[in-house]
Fold this sequence. Notes:
The structure holds two protein chains of two kinds.
Chain A (H helix, E strand, L loop, with lengths): L3 E4 L2 E4 L5 E7 L5 E7 L5 E8 L2 E5 L6 E7 L2 E6 L8 E8 L12 E2 L3 E5 L1
Parallel strand pairs in A: 2-11
Antiparallel strand pairs in A: 1-3, 3-8, 4-5, 4-9, 5-6, 7-8, 9-10, 9-11
Chain B lengths: L2 E3 L4 E5 L4 E3 L2 E3 L5 E8 L6 E7 L6 E3 L2 E6 L4 E6 L8 E9 L4 E4 L3 E6 L1
Amino acid sequence: DTAVSQTPKYLVTQMGNDKSIKCEQNLGHDTMYWYKQDSKKFLKIMFSYNNKELIINETVPNRFSPKSPDKAHLNLHINSLELGDSAVYFCASSQWGASSSGANVLTFGAGSRLTVL
Amino acid sequence: AQKVTQAQTEISVVEKEDVTLDCVYETRDTTYYLFWYKQPPSGELVFLIRRNSFDEQNEISGRYSWNFQKSTSSFNFTITASQVVDSAVYFCALSEAQNNDMRFGAGTRLTVKP
């Protein structure tokens, strides 16, 4: 049973299109994230939600809009896709501030590879 | 915001050699957490270890060991008797307790040759 699942795994689309990536976690965590990994493997945080509230919003173009309908889901919608949006997008979740050894440990999904042509 | 530096972009070793991956961090927070993640060629991100800022004890797990030194703001990772399966990109990361905002270093690509 996958802990953090994201769909689709691969997405190939044309410039200018709108696309969404979905993420779900079944770990009972209260915080979810989106990270972008570029071709040089650099991992950059984009957004973070805690209990459905946006807490981290990095300098990401407003074409990217996260939506968290509940604690277990964090979806990423991208409008007017550009070539530079091509990357692997990772969803992750964690439990914020827990005192256990698992506190703040991010569990990642398998990644969604977006290719914009 | 916090910063994590992994100066080694790529390292190549021969199987059975020991290898150390360096990680240096910056933060103004007194309470923070340090992490190492592994990304094998298959692409998933695998959690290896978490250390909090109050615990400077070194840790050993099988062939892996970690050396945390607050005096030099470093959290280095050593693999003893490396194996081909250790080939991956390794990321060091830091999360400040106040905001749970995890920032990653640029990663070190380790290649272990048979």
